[in-house]
UniProtKB/TrEMBL annotation:
This is Cytidylate kinase. It is an enzyme of class 2 (transferase). It comes from Pigmentiphaga soli. The gene is cmk. Its EC number is 2.7.4.25. ATP binds at G8, P9, T10, A11, S12, G13, K14, G15, T16. It is found in: Cytoplasm.
Amino acid sequence: MPVIAIDGPTASGKGTIATRLAAELGWHVLDSGALYRLTALACLRRGIGAADVAAAAAAARGLDVRFGARIYLEGEDVTDAIRDEAVGDLASRVAALQPVRDALLARQRAFREPAGLVADGRDMGTVVFPDADLKVFLVASARARAERRYKQLIEKGFSANLDTLLRDLEARDARDAQRASAPLVAAPDALKLDSSDLTIDQTVAQVLAWWRARSA
């Protein structure tokens, strides 16, 4: 089945773009970041820190999750809870652990079903789907990403500080790029797209144009 892999740093708009693309194409969508956030939420609730590698990996393997219009963990709607900044910070830390990544790899690949899949994350084109038909590396300036995340959090009723978000994003960028396991890096055959000054519609249109040219 065809796969469009969209990788990029935190808050670059990967999830929004992937969801829109999947809707346009009639394909499935994989928000791989949600799996790591779910693992982080499960760890937080069980008092598991990133230093406890075995326990974190066990939490990842045993995730009782259900995806749909909303995301459920052990029967509870956690769609909004996994977007909390504390969950995101721990998700970035546990995502650096190879046993956790190994535990989630097969679950991610299982999303590849007819008629196709749009997968977003940090290693979709390099590790999870290295044979993806189209690979996009979506970037945006740290300031633009912090402003987007700030707006999202405020709209959902969370308190947020723009300067704090900017510092956190820059720290996560460094952590994701420098980790030994599946670091955030563009695949050699990925097309880079800077969305700092693009609307969602413009970004989606560009990726669709690339896909149509590729599939033609």
